[in-house]
Automatic annotation (TrEMBL), chain A:
Taxonomic source organism: Roseococcus suduntuyensis
Protein name per its UniProtKB record: Phosphonate transport system permease protein
Annotated Gene3D superfamilies: MetI-like
Membrane topology: Multi-pass membrane protein
Record InterPro entries: MetI-like, MetI-like_sf, PhnE/PtxC
Family from the record: Belongs to the binding-protein-dependent transport system permease family.
Database matches in NCBIfam families: PhnE
Lineage top rank: taxon: Bacteria
Main location: membrane
Domain ABC transmembrane type-1 positions: 80-264
Automatic annotation (TrEMBL), chain B:
ABC transporter domain boundaries: 9-253
Keywords (A to Z) from UniProt: ATP-binding, Cell membrane, Membrane, Nucleotide-binding, Translocase, Transport
GO molecular function term, any single one: ATP binding
Keyword match Cell membrane: yes
CDD domains for the chain: ABC_PhnC_transporter
Lineage: Bacteria, Pseudomonadati, Pseudomonadota, Alphaproteobacteria, Acetobacterales
Pfam families attached to this UniProt entry: ABC_tran (PF00005)
Protein's UniProt name: Phosphonate transport system ATP-binding protein
Gene3D superfamilies recorded: P-loop containing nucleotide triphosphate hydrolases
Keyword ATP-binding attributed: yes
One term under GO cellular component: membrane
SUPFAM superfamilies on file: P-loop containing nucleoside triphosphate hydrolases
Superkingdom, natural source: Bacteria
Cited InterPro entries: AAA+_ATPase, ABC_transporter-like_ATP-bd, ABC_transporter-like_CS, ABC_transpr_PhnC, MetN_ABC_transporter-like, P-loop_NTPase
Automatic annotation (TrEMBL), chain C:
Any single Pfam family the record assigns to this protein: BPD_transp_1
Source organism: Roseococcus suduntuyensis
TM spans (from-to): 33-54, 139-162, 251-272
Signal peptide residues on this chain, from the entry's feature table: none
Protein name: Phosphonate transport system permease protein
InterPro entries to which the protein is assigned, alphabetical: MetI-like (IPR000515), MetI-like_sf (IPR035906), PhnE/PtxC (IPR005769)
Domain of life: Bacteria
Intracellular or extracellular location(s): Cell membrane
GO CC annotations, alphabetized: plasma membrane
GO molecular function, one term: ABC-type phosphonate transporter activity
Membrane topology: Multi-pass membrane protein
Keywords for the protein's UniProt record, in alphabetical order: Cell membrane, Membrane, Transmembrane, Transmembrane helix, Transport
NCBIfam families: PhnE (TIGR01097)
Domain ABC transmembrane type-1: 87-269
Length: 272, 272, 277
């Protein structure tokens, strides 16, 4: 039955044959069974006595977290500035390397589909697969703790992100605008600068700002592995169970993220 | 028609087979004398677009020769081809303006073949190029739009910018690909008239791909009909009769089309 | 009528050319130079205030070679049990949190859509989304670890919470963009609220729901690989332990496994998304 073949793609609200119905229900059942089995696995590794305690623990935690220690903010301005620097300088470095990589990876601009493109794609995938925190972990071992490790960790993670989204944008540009320049006798670099760059500019701006926004959040936790920023204070406060300080840090992070989100929305609006 | 004069463009035995195996052009030979405005008509897929793209080698011909003013284009190296392309202005169906650049930048992009990369990157064009750009923009009535972005223009205005861009190259030949396909009937006539007038003023030859038989008959001095990659008609606009149309487009009751053409011409004359 | 005659008679092309400048990105010169100067000032300040212990970094560079060579060959075997355990924790965490997160995100998304929900519910749901999106997963994990103890349950709760914020925000945007005419047509038949949602809203957002779910599955696995750093279980735990014990060959093996699984996830989720659209 041809209708049966299409069962997977048929929208759910349509009336199905019995066989299709059966398949859909089996699919749901299998999905639920998988989730339950997985939960069973997690549950085996959980000390439930602690969990039943959680509401009480939570209430306890909250009572210890409030009021926040406002005076602690004085010691946090410098780490906050560091956090912003980690995100911003890391993003800038990532742009510096990511943009050329994107042009090397895009089908319509790569110098060689057979050799250069696969190598660049591998670099992009490797950079993207590894979380900034893991990059930071490795870099802290090599460079020692500090802001530099944080900046480079953010940069290494963001290169692949920026390059991937940008090369997808480059591959989607309107080829007729490029053809027109080529027909006028423009050289390859000129075709790139006049025909392609203006077309990908909005995408580029959007991607950079988007990544910067993500990086602000990521930069807040790099300090947990010693890579600088406000996460260092967070780690120290948690280790000494100084919960009012933790609350203060959370408030500052909340403020910073709100500002960065507002700023990136403004920039995106201005450019597009 | 000065058929005996030395041709500006001499196409001989041109054949194009796409990698898919489709034969787009079969043994096409065509001579265009200087200053001749020629219309290329034929059904969709007849190879009109491929033919003019084989002239400036945006599409590489499979065999045959193309000679422009004594220079064999088909054997040129990349650099020499770029220089040769400067002598062939191209005008496109969907205008193919770089939409995020201004009108003036689009016009100046016609000079890219004459300008070094860094000079063009910093938009430093010779004063007389900018003057010529303003003169031509004024000629087509768009001087006041110079700093508008190209995507803010109407279809007819964009096509006029496209024409000016092609003229900036100081070409000997215009390759015009369906200049009116995206325009309304009135604007179509204006654009065709503008192209023909400018060709006369500057003594340019032009090959104009066009769907609209009536426009071709009205504005071109010579009509070439292409069908399935072969030339099946070549003559003056007045010799294009029902039999010729049948040979180009296939069997159809052409009598009414021809009558319509005549009345339209009368209307056009009274309007003009 | 001819466009060709539109040119003004007394137009001075030479003067216009003299006056022409390439248009700058920012119109107002004051703002333009302020932005340039501000950007320059920031970069200088930022770079200057980065405290780098160059001697330590130089030392590290010397050691980096030895450190990196410690990665090779990757050792999958000697800590095989730990790796397997971590991997299973990560995978189960991913599955449960994605399923649970999606299930919970649907009501939150409905509540966070201005065209469906009354104001108090809208604000409440938007607050959930805002909190979930502001804090990095790691920070939320710290709080959950403090509440329910070490182990994969904390990780699972973290990812569920993050999934709700992510999915609900994007879904709500989509719901707010649905075609009002279709929704109106269904409402005009006299359908109740639930059947109205099921017949007019759900069909319109379903492709996006499936696409986002696949994307989130992918993200959740990546994140599950780092939650172990704060004790929330998963393969990150194994990785962290390997680094702490200087077992770099095991760490390399873990990293390779993470890259491989991320690749598989990415291709699968890309395939699902293409299939749905």
């Amino acid at each position: 039955m041809p209708i049966l073949e299409r069962a997977g793609g048929t929208p759910e609200w349509k009336r199905r044959t019995t066989a299709q119905d059966l398949m859909v229900w089996t699919g749901w059942l299998a999905g639920v069974a998988l989730a339950v089995a997985c939960f069973q696995f997690i549950s085996d590794r959980t000390i439930w006595a602690f969990v039943w305690d959680a509401p009480q623990q939570g209430a306890d935690l909250v009572s210890r977290m409030f009021p926040p220690r406002w005076s602690y903010a004085d010691q946090l301005w410098k780490p906050l500035w560091d956090t912003i620097n980690i995100a911003t300088l890391g993003t800038l470095i990532a742009i510096l390397f990511g943009v050329p990589l994107a042009f090397l990876a895009a089908h319509n601009t790569t110098p060689s589909v057979l050799f250069v493109r696969p190598v660049v794609l591998f670099i992009i995938v490797a950079s993207r697969s590894i979380n900034a925190l893991i990059w930071a972990l490795i870099l802290v071992i090599i460079l020692g703790p500090g802001v530099l490790a944080g900046i480079l960790a953010i940069a290494l993670r963001s290169i692949g992100f920026i390059a991937k989204l940008l090369y997808e944008a480059i591959e989607e540009i309107d080829p007729s605008q490029v053809e027109a320049l080529r027909a006028s006798g423009a050289s390859n670099p000129q075709v790139l600068a006049w025909g392609m760059v203006p077309q990908v500019m909005p995408a580029f701006a959007g991607i950079s700002v988007f990544r910067w926004d993500i990086n602000i959040r990521e930069a807040t936790v790099l300090g947990l592995v010693g890579a600088g920023g406000i996460g260092m204070q967070l780690e120290a406060s948690i280790n000494t169970l100084a919960w009012p300080q933790v609350t203060m840090i959370f408030i500052l992070i909340l403020g910073m993220v709100a500002v960065s989100e507002w700023l990136s929305a403004r920039v995106r609006h201005a450019i597009i | 028609m000065p058929e005996n004069a030395t041709p500006l463009l001499d196409i001989a035995g041109l054949t194009k087979r796409y990698p898919t195996g489709d034969l787009a052009l079969t043994d096409v030979s065509l001579r265009v004398p200087p200053g001749q405005v020629m219309a290329l008509i034929g059904p969709s897929g007849a190879g009109k677009s491929t033919l003019i793209r084989c002239v400036n080698r945006l599409v590489e011909p499979s065999s045959g020769t193309v000679v422009l003013a004594g220079e064999a284009l088909t054997t040129l190296s990349r650099g020499a081809l770029r220089r040769a392309r400067r002598r062939m202005g191209m005008i496109f169906q969907e205008y193919a303006l770089v939409e995020r650049l201004t009108v003036m930048e689009n016009v100046l992009s016609g000079r890219l073949g004459y300008t070094g990369f860094w000079a063009s990157w910093f938009r430093r064009f010779p004063r007389r190029d900018v003057e010529e750009a303003f003169r031509l923009l004024d000629r087509v009535g768009l001087a006041h739009m110079a700093d508008k972005r190209a995507d803010a223009l109407s279809g007819g205005q964009r096509q006029r910018v496209g024409i000016v861009r092609a003229l900036m190259q100081d070409p000997a030949l215009l390759l015009v690909d369906e200049p009116t396909a995206s325009l309304d009937p009135k604007t179509s006539r204006q654009i065709m008239r503008l192209i023909v007038e400018l060709c006369e003023e500057r003594g340019l030859a032009a090959i104009i791909n066009i769907h609209d038989v009536a426009l071709a008959q009205e504005f071109a001095r010579r009509i070439v009909g292409l069908r399935a990659g072969r030339i099946v008609f070549d003559g003056g606009p007045d010799t294009l009769d029902a039999a010729a149309l049948t040979s180009i487009y296939g069997e159809e009751d052409w009598s009414r089309t021809i009558r319509r053409l005549e009345t339209e011409e009368n209307v056009a004359e009274t309007v003009a | 009528m001819s466009a060709t005659n539109a040119g003004t008679a007394g137009f001075d092309a030479a003067a216009a050319a003299r006056a022409w400048r390439p248009p700058p990105l920012i119109e107002s010169p004051l703002l333009r130079y302020a932005v340039y100067l501000g950007a320059l000032l920031y970069v200088v300040l930022g770079v200057v205030t980065v405290e780098v212990n160059w001697t330590r970094a130089a030392e590290g560079m010397g050691r980096a070679a030895g450190f990196l060579s410690g990665f090779f060959p990757p050792d999958f075997v000697s800590k095989g049990d730990d790796i397997f355990e971590g991997l299973m924790e990560s995978l189960t965490m991913t599955v449960v949190s994605t399923a649970l997160g999606i299930a919970l995100s649907i009501p939150v998304a409905l509540g966070a859509s201005r065209n469906l929900a009354p104001l108090p519910i809208y604000l409440f749901c938007r607050a959930i989304i805002a909190v979930s999106r502001t804090f990095q997963e790691i920070i939320i994990a710290i709080v959950f670890v403090a509440m329910v103890g070490f182990g994969p349950l904390a990780g699972m709760l973290t990812l569920t919470f993050a999934t709700v914020g992510f999915m609900a925000k994007l879904l709500a945007e989509d719901i707010e963009d649905i075609e009002a005419a279709q929704a109106e047509a269904v409402r005009a038949t006299g359908a109740g609220w639930f059947s109205w949602i099921a017949w007019s809203v759900l069909p319109q957002v379903k492709p996006r729901l499936i696409g986002l779910s696949a994307y989130r599955l992918d993200i959740n696995f990546r994140e599950s690989a780092v939650l172990g750093l704060v004790g929330a279980g998963g393969i990150g735990d194994t990785l962290n332990t390997a680094f702490d014990r200087y077992e770099f060959d095991t760490a390399a093996a873990v990293l390779l496994i993470i890259i491989a699984i991320v690749l598989v996830c990415e291709y699968t989720s890309g395939w699902i998304r293409r299939k749905v659209q």
